[in-house]
């Protein structure tokens, strides 16, 4: 999940919107305030409902994504296999994210914003359909009527012929997957045509859940490196330059969760949104999921570190919102989320005497498992 902007929180309607963060904007992602239009002032009820809903929506992909991450590595379907992030990947990620962010900044400065957003919309349209379909699949398995026959399908693309034939794509699916794909396509068309905030949120939740489920940190040290690097990245791009804000004002894609602050007044046609970037969900989320898998590895039938980090995330996000409203100034969300999500579990591990065991915990990537199984089979044949 290569989310280029990990997040920031901006107060009220007087600040420009952040690409990943909390803010109040109009339906086009631009400021609703100018010389001729009065400022929008959200009611206390509307503000509480908007930010409370965003916090709740942020917790959903972290919770369910973490649970699904425990078993996704056991899947035989290659599309469900997790991608393992190593220490080297974690160290490079903030640099790559910074280059991507600055590249987008240059693109929007040089080329037409309309055509760039059209290209991005089509790109996220395809990704969103696949992500939402994958998210819906387990739920469809539970509710699919038993009396309806399930047919199996296979999508196979090969290159070459004879002995040189090589599989490029080998995807197996069934009737339930087809239904999920059709529903996801309907949501995708709805988003492309209307850019409705509910369709945006469905795609955003799917992206976040898939990110937490399929992106695995190989150990705690890697998680600390990744979150620490993005902590610096977030603070720099929010406080040090206007690049993130400039990109945010131009970028139209379902990479954020939004909720209207004027919902109580205007219903589903509301247009003043608070928003939370997916980076503020996925980055802490993959660390929380790692702690859940560490809990499972302890085989103590407890989820101490998962629950601790989950509560730490709620505390960090709540603190971000509080600071934003208190000081009325833009805040990078990871400035508060990273210390909370790392610090709380480490303190608990220190008190329980499991700090060494926590840092010794290591996950093996899918590629290493496959290579090991291949080596074992070769050794058996040699014997």
TrEMBL record:
It is found in: Endoplasmic reticulum membrane; Membrane. Its main location: endoplasmic reticulum. The chain crosses the membrane at residues 48-70, 90-108, 114-132, 178-193, 224-248, 268-292, 304-327, 333-351. The keyword Transmembrane applies. It is a multi-pass membrane protein. The keyword Phosphoprotein does not apply. GO terms for cellular component: cytoplasmic side of endoplasmic reticulum membrane; lumenal side of endoplasmic reticulum membrane. One of its GO terms (molecular function) is aspartic endopeptidase activity, intramembrane cleaving. SMART domains: PSN. InterPro entries: Peptidase_A22B_SPP, Preselin/SPP. It comes from the Eukaryota. GO terms for biological process: membrane protein proteolysis; signal peptide processing. Residues 1-23 are annotated as: Disordered. Keywords: Endoplasmic reticulum, Hydrolase, Membrane, Transmembrane, Transmembrane helix. Belongs to the peptidase A22B family. This is Minor histocompatibility antigen H13. It comes from Oncorhynchus tshawytscha. The gene is HM13.
């Amino acid at each position: 999940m290569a989310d280029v902007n990990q997040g920031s929180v901006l107060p009220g309607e007087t600040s420009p919107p952040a690409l990943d963060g909390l803010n109040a904007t109009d339906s086009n992602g631009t400021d609703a305030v100018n010389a001729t239009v009065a400022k929008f002032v959200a009611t206390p009820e509307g503000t509480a409902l908007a930010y409370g809903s965003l916090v709740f929506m942020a917790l959903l992909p972290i919770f369910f994504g973490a649970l699904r991450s425990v078993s996704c590595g056991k899947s035989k379907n290659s599309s469900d296999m997790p991608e393992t992030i190593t220490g080297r990947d974690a160290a490079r990620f903030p640099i790559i994210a910074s280059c991507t962010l600055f590249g987008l900044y240059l693109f929007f400065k040089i080329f037409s914003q309309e055509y760039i957003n059209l290209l991005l919309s089509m790109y996220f349209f395809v990704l969103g359909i696949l992500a939402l379909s994958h998210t819906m699949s387990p739920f469809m398995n539970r509710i699919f009527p038993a009396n309806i026959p399930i047919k199996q399908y296979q999508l196979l693309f090969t290159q070459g012929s004879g002995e040189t034939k090589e599989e490029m794509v080998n995807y197996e699916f069934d009737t339930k997957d087809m239904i999920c794909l059709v529903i996801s396509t309907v949501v995708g068309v709805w988003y492309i045509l209307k850019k409705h905030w509910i369709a945006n949120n469905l795609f955003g939740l799917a992206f976040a859940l898939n990110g937490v489920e399929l992106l695995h940190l190989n150990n705690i040290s890697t998680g600390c490196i990744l979150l620490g690097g993005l902590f610096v990245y977030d603070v720099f791009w929010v406080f040090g330059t206007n690049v993130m804000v400039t990109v945010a004002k131009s970028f139209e894609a379902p990479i954020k969760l939004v909720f209207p602050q004027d919902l109580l007044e205007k219903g589903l046609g509301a247009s003043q949104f608070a928003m939370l970037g997916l980076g503020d969900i996925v980055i802490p989320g993959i660390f929380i999921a790692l702690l859940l898998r560490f809990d499972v590895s302890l085989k103590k039938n407890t989820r101490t570190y998962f629950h601790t980090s989950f509560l730490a995330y709620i505390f960090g996000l709540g603190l971000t919102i509080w600071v934003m409203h208190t000081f009325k100034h833009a805040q990078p969300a990871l400035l508060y989320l990273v210390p909370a999500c790392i610090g709380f579990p480490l303190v608990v591990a220190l008190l329980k005497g499991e700090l060494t065991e926590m840092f010794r915990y290591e996950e093996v990537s899918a590629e290493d498992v496959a290579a090991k199984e291949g080596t074992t089979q070769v050794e058996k044949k040699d014997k």
